Automatic annotation (TrEMBL):
It comes from Psychromicrobium lacuslunae. Residues 17-456 form the Major facilitator superfamily (MFS) profile domain. This is Putative proline/betaine transporter. Belongs to the major facilitator superfamily. Metabolite:H+ Symporter (MHS) family (TC 2.A.1.6) family. The keyword Ribosomal protein does not apply. One of its GO terms (molecular function) is symporter activity.
Length: 465
């Protein structure tokens, strides 16, 4: 059956749109953050046991970055089907891919098991790649589901609901890790407890599938089916007709990505690293694994919080992320996407310059650092659910927004934790270079925003030529 033979169904209800876009991205981001948390807490020692502490961490972050390499490939794959056969089926496929990959990570043997020194990290890379493929197609589909079903003058507000899945997924993943840390011994958690969040994703995927199977296609996609304007090769058309929008969208997302992965992955590493070499030595002796001379020579100080204490601090910060994601929608609807993001990105630039005085302020300073960072994250992430899709015509919108979003993930998110750790070490424990890095990325995003146009009043059934 061709797309022209599809029977046009009734429209989605408002509640179904909100729940399906929110639930789906919450599950996707939960799965993604489960890995991100484990990449800091347990994977360095479980999958790279023969390396020193710093190399273990960098190796774990390198595998973490594999997913970001996969995401643009996923954006092309899922974008093709999202623009070719529809949003609904593509969203279901991306959810299944992420869920299966995450569940299988929970089943993997570790490199500490005899005979698995090579295969365990290799299979982890494969599963991580699959996670990246899935997330490459998930975000754009959820954003289109929300915005293409939104009433007039409500697109930015509806567009915040898939965005809200990011803080919800983060909180779910880290609360579960926190509960496991509090209820299991360190040995039990390292042995088998870390697997529970990965295996538990199966339950969440079933719930997400139930919601998404009840969806019908968006009005905008129904319109291009009726007009016979479905693109046969969306990736070719989007590069031919919307290449400038692809570049702008990529750099518009850059500061958002860098900020988020600094505030989550890097801060967890920095926050839970011992504040002095003496503290680090004492902790190592207590754990029965005294530091080697190489580890002592490579040591750089962090904030010195316990894992559980800092996870709680992060969760508090992410609550502000969720609140201000919702706040960002009405602001972008009232003042426009472009103007709102220019102001917020300028504040991100200033925030980067304030890393050192905030971090040096003890618990109050560290908590302020997290709250301010996550507040800015919500304000910049919220409008993206509407702004990026609005840059592209309907028949290449899934592909265009997905490619921009996920190519930006390579330039921003994939390398951000790795670069931040390297800069932190280069500065001998100070965060001033990390802050400068964030501010520099904010400048690039500001340039892209100044070169872009406002999309608030754009017709979402406009077609590319």
């Amino acid at each position: 059956m061709s797309v022209n033979d599809v029977v046009i169904p009734k429209a989605n209800t408002r509640g179904r749109v909100i729940i399906a876009s929110l639930v789906g991205t919450s599950i996707e981001f939960y799965d993604f953050y489960v890995y991100a948390t484990a990449a800091v807490l347990v994977f360095p020692k479980l999958f790279f046991p023969n390396a020193d502490g710093v190399t273990q961490l960098l190796s774990s972050f390198a595998v973490f970055g594999v997913a970001f390499v996969a995401r643009p490939i996923g954006s092309i794959l899922f974008g093709h089907f999202g623009d070719r056969i529809g949003r609904k089926g593509t969203l279901i496929a991306s959810l299944l891919t992420m869920g299966i990959a995450t569940f299988l990570i929970g089943c993997l043997p570790t490199a500490q098991v005899a005979g698995w020194t090579f295969w365990a990290p290799a299979l982890l890379v494969v599963m991580r790649f699959a996670q990246g493929l899935a997330l490459g197609g998930e975000w754009s589909g959820a954003a289109l589901l929300a915005t293409e079903n939104a009433p007039k003058n409500k697109r930015a507000i509806y567009g915040t609901f898939p965005q809200l899945g990011a803080p919800i997924g983060f909180i779910l993943a880290n609360v579960l890790f926190l509960v496991l840390n509090l209820t299991l011994s360190a040995e039990a958690f390292s042995s088998w407890g870390w697997r529970i969040p990965f295996l538990a994703s199966a339950v969440m995927v079933i719930i997400g599938l139930y919601v998404r199977l009840k969806l019908v296609e968006t009005p905008a996609f129904q319109k291009i089916v009726e007009q016979g304007e479905v693109s046969k090769l969306p990736i070719g058309r989007v590069f031919r007709t919307s290449w400038w929008q692809l570049i702008l969208g990529t750099f518009i997302m850059l500061a958002t990505y860098v900020l988020f992965y600094l505030m989550t992955t890097f801060t967890l590493t920095f926050g839970t690293t011992a504040a002095s070499i003496d503290d680090a030595k004492a902790a190592a002796v207590k754990a029965g694994k005294p530091m080697t001379q190489a580890a002592i020579d490579a040591f750089v100080p962090g904030l010195g919080y316990t894992r559980n204490d800092f996870l709680l601090m992060l969760i508090v910060g992410v609550v502000f992320f969720g609140i201000f994601t919702l706040v960002a929608g009405p602001l972008a609807e009232k003042y426009g996407r472009r103007k709102s993001l220019i102001v917020i990105t300028a504040l991100i630039f200033v925030f980067g310059l304030c890393f050192v005085p905030l971090v040096a302020g003890g618990f109050v300073g560290a908590m302020a650092w997290l709250i301010i960072g996550f507040t800015l994250m919500g304000l910049t992430f919220g409008p993206m659910g509407a702004f990026l899709p609005e840059l592209f015509p309907t028949n290449v919108r899934y592909t265009g927004s997905a490619v921009s979003y996920n190519v930006s993930s390579i330039l921003g998110a994939a390398v951000a934790p790795f670069i931040a750790v390297a800069l932190w070490q280069a500065a001998h424990g100070s965060t001033w270079l990390v802050g400068i890095y964030l501010s520099a990325m904010a400048v690039l995003t500001l340039i892209a925003l100044f070169l872009s146009k406002e999309t608030k009043d754009k017709d979402l059934v406009e077609l590319s030529s």
